[in-house]
Amino acid sequence: MTQVLGEGASAQTQNGEGSSGKDVEFDFYHWSAVLRSVSGFEVYRKVYRNVIRPEKVAELLILRPDMPRSLAACMHEVVANLERVANEQARDTVRLAGRLEADLHFGRIDEILATGLHAYLTQFLERVNALGAGISRDFLVPVAA
Hints:
Layout: H1 21-37, H2 41-48, H3 54-62, H4 71-85, H5 91-106, H6 109-115, H7 117-140
Helix pairs in contact: 4-5, 5-7
């Protein structure tokens, strides 16, 4: 059995086995708090209409473009904004942002969880950091004459 969220997660597993009542109760309150912190609790209930499950929370907050604070929705906005202000110098930055958006658009939660949520998010943050450096270089730092 593999844990849904990797190291440090509760004993909730992908197939639901091996969880004590305390673990399930902890998961509910833990993931409810995560959802509430991003105003996603009501959205989760409307979309999934079932018990809060860590893999569904991850899916909502990473891949769902209809969740305004998901990574997918945020990257869509980044790409749209970059396309509005893009110039020849920013071509690679726009391309990097588009690849991030495409990976989220075509991503599947089972693939993300197979990689490990922590590993996936760490890699995503590294890519976003590179994107931020590109945006800073292309739009914020003056070009030397």
